[in-house]
Amino acid sequence: MAENKTKAVNKKSLTREVAGPSAVRNPFEMEAVASGLTPSKLASVLQEAAEGDMQAYLTLAEEMEEREPHYASVLRTRKFAVCSLDISVEHSTENKFTEEIQQLIDTPEFADMMSDALDAIGKGFSVNEIIWDQTGSVWKPVAYKWRDPRYFMFLKDNPEELRIIDESNSEAGLEIPPYKFIVHRPRLKSGLTLRGGLARLVAFSYLCKMYGLKDWMAFLEIYGVPLRIGYYDGEIDEKQEETLRRAVYEIGSDAAAILPRTMAIEFQEISHTASGSDAFARLAEWIDRQLSKAVLGQTMTADDGSSHAQAQVHDEVRQDIIDADAKQLATTINRDLIKPYIDLNYGVQEEYPRIKISLPESYDTENLADNLAKLVPLGLKVSQQEVLSKLGLSEPQEGEELLAAPSTQPAESNKEDKANNRQQTCSHCQAVNSQQPDEIDQLETLMLDDWQQQLTPVIDPLISAIQQAQSYEELQQLLPDLLSKMDRTQLAESLAKAGFIAYGHGVAEGDN
Hints:
single chain, mainly alpha, 3-stranded antiparallel β-sheet, 19 helices, DUF935 domain-containing protein, Portal_Mu
């Protein structure tokens, strides 16, 4: 907080509660707002909050989280998305406080404090009171107590200065003591803190949904019930009319009624249609989508029926919001907790360690592995530690069992194979380059250079016979004479030459 730089620290107040419940800070005396909420009442609540009286607005924000399942769900999703991120400590090479800060943020109390601090997303601000403990000369936070935002007020002449509501000064309250509170004010929009919470944004949608649900329940209460009409003969007095009216009402709920013979009740079936009920359902679903957009920045991953591709695209938008929430929360904690911890124990420093809450970088590990396999053999120099970090792996410690490629030691050659000049497959040899030609490839190229010229004299007589024959039987009669017409000289010479070359390569490799 800005006050930490200018106010003297009262160390006696660090170990005791300053903003706990009291006569004027009583959570059980807060008047409900959501019950019987109307458009005019909502407008009045929001206007009062904008003018500095935020008690009713903060109560409404609390009640909306308790009464509206979808709003509570998406708000909780946004909070937990930040709380699930890893926290690291940024430091310079000369910073000696890193280990202490790491121990500070590894405590369960710290994780709870983060969740409580993110209550500011809905209400515009949140306050956690730090309870310090001094063991010897070391100051450490032993507890973080969430404080109801209704325990605080903003000054009318300085609407950004937060004060503690207190009976000793009902007009201006008490100053926020330095090093005592973690005050988180997320910048969801520019402007006053009082107008920055999501509860203000979604309040009207909440009201519309509550009206829609109420009308929906009233519709379902009479849906399918036949219309009951009472008949009477001639004129009747008021007493008889009341008797008939009571019978019509009672038969609807009790399925029994008593009335004179001169009166009758008729039931008229109403054609059943779901169009009315569907209208209420569509309204509720539409409002839920707007709430999702307001809180998560998207709707696809919060609602059913969306494709995987759509969810992937919208997840990226949502990550931007998570990243912004995480950075703003880290800034608050660095200012209101990390710096006070260092100042109390070591005095004012030129440089302070800072925590970082951020989304982990995602990599296509398969693509990374393929690129490394291609580029490293060409001479690309890559840091092993950097590759491990991108894969999410740690540097192996000394003495740990390591994964390694299977051994490729050559097996001993069989003496009988050697004596008979018999060739065996090399079990440990690997191809250096699949594109590098060997003797077989060269022989294949040699044989295919003039294959058409070699085969043409052989197949031409057959093609000519097929063209001349008028039937299958006629072709069969022509076949015996074809062999004498086929010139196999070039083909035979080529095959003999190839066989001689192959034999020569075999003899040479056998000697080696």
